[in-house]
Amino acid sequence: MVVILIGFYILFPVLAIWLCFRYEFFNKIGAVFICYLVGITVGNIGIIPESAFHVQESLSEAAVALSLPLLLFSMNVRRWLKIAGKALLSMLGATIAIIIIAFVGYAMINDRIPDAWRLGGMAIGVYTGGTPNLAAIKTALNVDSTTFIIMHTYDTFISLIYLIFCMTVAQRVFNIWLPRFSLAANNRGGAAGAMETEDIHSYTGMFRRGTVLALGGATLLSLLVVGLAMGLASLVPASYATSVAILTITTGGIACSFVPKIRNLDKTFQFGMYIILIFCLVVGSMANLRDLININWSLMFFVSFCVFGSLLLHGIFCRIFKIDTDTYIITSVSAICSPPFVPVVASALKNKEIILSGLTTGIVGYAVGNYLGISLAYIFRAMLG
Known about the structure:
Layout: H1 2-22, H2 24-29, H3 31-43, H4 53-72, H5 77-80, H6 85-109, H7 116-126, H8 131-140, H9 145-168, H10 170-174, H11 209-233, H12 238-257, H13 260-263, H14 268-286, H15 290-293, H16 297-320, H17 325-336, H18 342-348, H19 355-384
């Protein structure tokens, strides 16, 4: 049974990616949500024995550790430094906004939800980067799978409302008190090059012989980074070992990205996202559906407050620094919803010029989200207990 279960975890994400590639309906839902939904279904119909829990836990932790370096190998830090200054300034504003809002929200629910400081850390991670950061911080802070799934479920629902707002009336609303986008006013920093995204079509060609061999080498390098991180983690107290491991893995992945031959390996980002889909499927199957039926209003409030509170505070920041509406919206989307939604929102805003800024700042969020989420979670706990 265990072998069949592991095979299912490994192979189903391939089907999820194919469905999104083949059918627009599934693509709109997204492979991440499909894996969560199928995982929750499989985990709650009674076919997975309770004895499989340790296998599930080990597989979810391994998936996070292995995927992080693969996601970071393709980073180009030097190029990022040349990209639009206002976009990076806006991303800084979005980051500051979620840190402040997450702390205020944590303070408001601290007496109602046990270990609310962990939720604060996850909120900072997911609203500066995305699912990979949320997954990593979940592991680093030892958040139980049910709490993780509940928070992610609420996040999906609230983020949908947020996206509808951004794609419909947000531009008209914020044009009232922010400058309108002007290409001449934005420093594009020269040639941009292609950016890695989670677009479903970017998975095409992963099974070519040369790509498979390159990904094999990248996987071995990722395992080496993970091994080094595990070694360093063994030198610190057990209560901090997981956090040290995750941060070391993140640092190792970024360091490797400075090597051109590693950075130019094809499809490492996509392969890392595929492993994240495995994580989503496993964690979904570990959740108890009965805990999802009854809404946790404190947690729902916290997620809503983080999304819309950070949006408003970020807008105030952009007003102070005279950042245009389109740059504000696209960097907000890249932070709160992650890069895959950038082209969609840019199309709704009828401004293709902002796609690069959104993708760039979103991937910056992938890199910094783990550091901020983990470190600030512990700071929150130290400040309020």
